[in-house]
Amino acid sequence: MKNQTKLFKIFTYLCLILFTLSILIPVAWVFMASLKTNAEFYENPWALPLSFYLDNFKDAWSAANMGEYFLNSVIVTLMALIILLAIALPFSYILARMTFKGRRFVNSYIKAGLFINLSYIVIPIFLLLRDASKALPTSLLNNRFILALIYASTAVPFTVYLLTNFFASISKSYEEAAYIDGAGYFRTMVDIMIPMAKPAVITVILFNFLSFWNEYILALTLMTEPSKRTLPVGLINLQQAARGAANYGRLYAGLVIVMIPTLIIYILVQKQLTEGMMVGGDKG
Fold first, then answer.
1. Cβ of 248: how many Cβ atoms within 10 Å?
2. Terminal CA-to-CA distance of the chain, rounded, Å?
3. What's the CATH architecture for 57-274?
4. What is the torsion angle, in degrees rounded to the nearest 10, for the CA atoms of residue 37, residue 43, residue 47 and residue 52?
5. Region 159-188: what's the mean pLDDT?
6. What are the Cα distances from residue 269, in Å, to 157, 240, 247?
7. pLDDT tens digits, residue range 177-202?
8. How far apart are CA 88 and CA 110, in angstroms?
9. pLDDT in tens, 8-62
10. Distance (Å, whole) CA 73 – CA 156
11. What letters, b where the CB count within 10 A reaches 16 and e where it falls short, cover 115-145?
12. pLDDT tens track for 220-263
């Protein structure tokens, strides 16, 4: 029995090591390729760079307009996260802690949204915005706020589902103590429930940030003006240009620019993600 347990642990660690290497090796290779000249890249793609050729990043940031695309992605992603949290947090709190007529239907309706893939509704969204723009003084296409609003809307089902389950697991004694102290529903949610839900909130922020930051199809369809494109769309254009000009160093520098924000955010919130979903406990 002990030998079987030992073999199982060895097999598990071996699988984890192989899985880690399958991720780290391509990422490390992209970072190395972004620091090489074209001559170095063609001579030996797997060799270490002879020097830090930072002109690739300069070319990608300015000549390939990655700086402008980066700013657009930051603006759209931040707006989408703010809109999403402003909607999902109170919505989840109400579904989890309050009883009202139609609650079961609303809960089932939200869960049904988990099965809707954004790729399937891109064309209807585009046609809807195009037709609505004809009746409005401003176009809803090439609009970063509209893109952020659609991102937030499509992420509501997953976010509400996750936060609702967490809020429902918190003991009611915290709310009762707050009500005794004279706190209303809004103050209880802001001062007590949301701070206790910090691990869950950070989790949904990270998952949705990755989803918004890397989204391509909707951004390509709605943002047709070059000045309004986001990083994934700009990266595809950079890839096509790199094939024609044989400038792969600039292409991989663009990939690094896309990856760096996600790596930084993951490092910053890694501790909160790995700790338990429940903070504190019922001390009563």
1. 19
2. 43
3. Orthogonal Bundle (1.10)
4. -10
5. 85
6. 23, 34, 35
7. 888 888 888 888 888 888 888 888 88
8. 11
9. 888 899 999 999 899 888 888 889 888 888 888 778 878 888 888 888 888 888 8
10. 20
11. eeebeeebeebeeebeeebeeeeeebbbbbe
12. 999 989 889 999 988 887 777 666 666 778 888 888 988 888 88
What does the alpha-carbon distance between residue 158 and residue 253 come to, in Å, rounded to a whole number?
Answer: 33
pLDDT at 217: 92
Of residues 275, 82, 109, 94, the one with CA closest to residue 167: 94
Q: Are 28 and 244 in contact (CB under 8 A)?
A: no
The domains of the chain are located at 57-274
State the chain's maximal CA–CA distance in angstroms: 74
Instruction: Tell if the pTM clears 0.90, that is, is over it.
Output: no
> Rounded distance, CA 111 to CA 284, Å?
34
Query: In this structure, what token pair is assigned to residue 248?
Result: 């792969």
